[in-house]
Amino acid sequence: MSPLVYKGYEQYFGCKIGDQDKPWAPHFCCSKCAIGLSKWLNGSRTSMQFAIPMIWREPRDHYTDCYFCLTDIKGITSKTKKNICYPNLQSAIHPVEHSTELEVPKPKKVSFDDDTVEYAMLDQDDEEFIPPPMPLDKTRLPHIINQSELNDLVRDLNLTKDQSELLGSRLKGWNLLDEETKVSFFRTRQSDFSVHFEMQGSLCYCNYVDRVMELLGVQHEPSEWRLSIDSPKYSLKAVLLHKGNVLPSIPIGHSVHMKESHENMDILLKLIRYDSYNWHICGDLKVIGLLLGMQPGYTKYCCFLCEWDSRARQSHYIVKEWPLRHQLTAGTKSVSCQSLVNPEKILLPPLHIKLGLMKTL
Fold first, then answer.
1. DSSP annotation of 223
2. β pairing state of 236-242 and 250-255
3. pLDDT at 339
4. Which domain of life is it from (predicted)?
5. Beta-carbon count within 10 A of 291 CB
């Protein structure tokens, strides 16, 4: 976008183009709007098509508030593009046309150097076109960053503790931090959460999930969360996943040395007080089998849903319907232990699911 577009946008709509440092904000202007603003400035065009432009904000999630995810363009061609239905969201508010209340503004004289104006009016489709630099406003004062703004910047950049403290010290050296902003804040940023986590043996677990949710600013509704238990080769972890993936995942259990076993699953569920919340549980078939007390290994009845016989190979591609399991009784049909959870609380996740603890926690 050229300086002429910036000036024309500010004069016509009464606001400046901002958030150009954010990835979710548009960084390009279509040629139709750029030419329209240029013609309006030089008086060859009376008005634009709308009085209030499209307003972009940071989307909350990709499920209910993402303009691009909610716009269905499957099967759309150049002839049918007029049939696209664009959503009107909080993160992308549609433009408003002119009316009696929203009158057409009058252009003011734009003061640019001759070289800058000539450079800005070049065709942007030209391969040799390079956008000119923005004119500097010498009267603009630097923005002083407070603690909450610094915390948001560190979160957006996904910085570690050392990197966050280094960034804060550099900004403080340049006199860009408020007097009450603490650079050492990031050394103990986990202190409010760590008091709700304990260690038992090699297992680190959350002893008060409701309090952790409250610190994160989330109202805990157990019906809206799913407990996912996964175990790679040398570790065991438990993570709460939000229904619809609207909120971020919350790790509540992790161990480097514990392996998948019925005893370890029993210990984990008791420590995180699963009986108090009764979340739905998702995991791979091995984890589900251990939670329901199924015998591990290559067994005769390895399915917890039906009595599929792994030994009856002559019937595998012939019999379509197998008897359902109505109950899981220890000592019968490959059930070795008592079930730890209600089978109705079990959910089968997608095969492509891959979970990992966030590095910042």
1. G
2. antiparallel
3. 93
4. Eukaryota
5. 25
Whole-number Cα distances in Å, 227 to 79, 261, 277, 349 = 47, 17, 10, 11
| Residue 232, helix vs strand vs coil | coil
The model's pTM is 0.59
* Selection from 20, 15, 14 nearest residue 1 by Cα: 20
3-class DSSP state of 294: strand
What's the CA gap between 237 and 275, in Å, rounded? 18
Note the helical H segments in the chain. 3-13, 31-42, 114-120, 147-157, 161-173, 191-194, 209-215, 262-271, 274-277, 285-291
| Token couple for 261 | 């076993």
Taking alpha carbons only, the member of 81, 63, 62 closest to residue 73 is 81
Residues of the chain with CATH 3.30.420: 191-293+338-361
**Reduced to 3 states, what is the DSSP secondary structure of residue 124?**
coil
| Residues contacting 62, CB < 8 A, separation 6+ | 69, 245
Q: What is the DSSP string of 328-352?
A: --TTSTTB-S--SS-GGGEEPPPTT
At residue 104's C-alpha, the angle toward residues 98 and 105, to 5°, is 145
What are the beta bridge partners of residue 206? 197
Angle between helices 31-42 and 3-13 (to 10 degrees): 70
Q: What tens digit of pLDDT does each residue of 59-113 get?
A: 888 888 888 888 888 888 888 888 888 898 888 888 888 888 888 888 876 655 4
User: What six digits make up the tokens of 153?
Assistant: 């910047």
324 contact partners, CB below 8 Å, separation of at least 6: 305, 306, 307
In CATH, the number for domain 191-293+338-361 is 3.30.420
